[in-house]
Amino acid sequence: MLTNYEVYELVSRDRADRVQKKQGDKQLHNLRVIQSQVIRHLEARGTNLESREFIRECFGRLKNEPYLLSSDEVLHIVNVLPKSAAEIHLLVSNCSERLSDEQVEEILELVSLQAPE
Amino acid sequence: MFELVRMRDAVGIAPEFLDAEKGAVQDEINKKYANRVLDGVGLVVGLYNIERISNGIIHPGDGASHVTVEFLLIVFKPHIGEVLCGSITSSDGDGLYVSLGFFDDVQIPPSCLPSPSRFDEEEKCWVWEWNGNDMWLDHGQEIQFRVFSIEYGPRDLLSHRKPPPLAGASESSSAAPSTEVAAPAHVQPPMMITGYINEPGLGLVCWWR
């Protein structure tokens, strides 16, 4: 499984390379279409505001004490970028038994991704 | 949402590209697979990398070199239970239709909407009746849903034909299915996601944020 951010990085870089090399092969039209559509979808979700450091920090913090989330749960969280407690409950199974309200708030804070000033 | 999928395929490289073989192979793979659904797997976004290229074989009468390639593709391959986000494109009696931009075939049937919901014939829109309030599921709105199931491949067209109404039939009489086709048969897309939103945190993004 790839994080949305990894896909965003890969696809944007490939698209930028092609634009730079002026690769206008008509038969690669399908590739150009899906690349720009995927980029647009991920930018609308805020994926472009993430970074490798952000992904590393999320996995590093959330898999350990006190949260102890699974890799799948962390992956889901960095892809969805929840902004409400209800969404955290969607992404973490048995959430009310495993996380306190404060911990849920801490996770929301971690993934809130303030845009750079 | 996205996964790497390993594939093996035979690719022909035309003689004029033989001195830039790797680039030609990459292009051939992207031409063949990008933006196409791999049956039972998912929608291909593009080539990730090439792992191995065999030695080329040239067939008599054909100047192209044919190689066997092992490669990884980036594929849109959501899991059952995964939460995705898209926008509502249309609605009808069979439910809501949602698009992710790069993938258009998501349906949320009435049974997967929060209960109770009704379809407003005038606005052609679904409405969730919550605590006496009408929560409209308007077109163009961002909606978060969970993947319930994924279906691949065109199905038998006959399974999608609804029995056409008999001429002059009243509500109380039972309609027997006729063998005529009243409307064009619905074409099943190559990959179809069924979603549900009847869980807290799902539905219109603006309901929760």
The SSE string of chain A, one letter per element, is: HHHHHHH
- Overall structural class of chain B, as computed from helix and strand content, comes to mainly beta
Distance between the terminal alpha carbons of chain A, to the nearest Å?
Answer: 32 Å
Distance N to C terminus of chain B: 22 Å
Please give the number of β-strands of chain B.
Answer: 14
Write down the oligomeric state: heterodimer
Biggest beta sheet summary of chain A: none
Percent of residues in helices of chain B comes to: under 10%
Low-confidence stretches of chain B: 157-165, 167-185
* Class derived from helix and strand content of chain A: mainly alpha
Residue share in helices of chain A?
55-70%
- Tally of separate helices of chain B: 1
Give the count of helical stretches of chain A. Answer: 7
Order of helices and strands of chain B: EHEEEEEEEEEEEEE
Instruction: Using the alpha-carbon principal axes, give the shape of chain B.
Output: elongated
User: How much of the sequence of chain B is in beta strands?
Assistant: 35-45%
Mean pLDDT of chain B, rounded to whole units? 85
Rg calc of chain B:
23 Å
Q: Biggest interface, which chains?
A: A-B, 33 and 31 residues
Total count of strands of chain A: 0
- Mean pLDDT figure of chain A: 92
Describe, in plain words, how this protein is organized in 3D.
The complex is a heterodimer of chains A (117) and B (209). By secondary structure, chain A is mainly alpha-helical. Helices cover 64% and strands 0% of the residues of chain A. Chain B is mainly beta and 209 residues long. Chain B has one helix at residues 21-33, and strands at 2-13, 37-38, 42-53, 57-58, 65-76, 83-92, 95-99, 106-108, 117-120, 125-130, 133-137, 142-152, 191-196, 203-204. In chain B, the strands form three sheets. In chain B, strands 1, 2, 3, 4 and 5 form a five-stranded antiparallel β-sheet that branches. A five-stranded mixed beta barrel of chain B has the order 6-7-8-13-12. Chain B has a three-stranded antiparallel β-sheet with strand order 9-10-11, with no helix packed on it. The longest helix of chain B is centred in the first third of the chain and has 13 residues, at 21-33. Chain B is elongated and about 75 Å long. The chains are: A mainly alpha (117), B mainly beta (209).
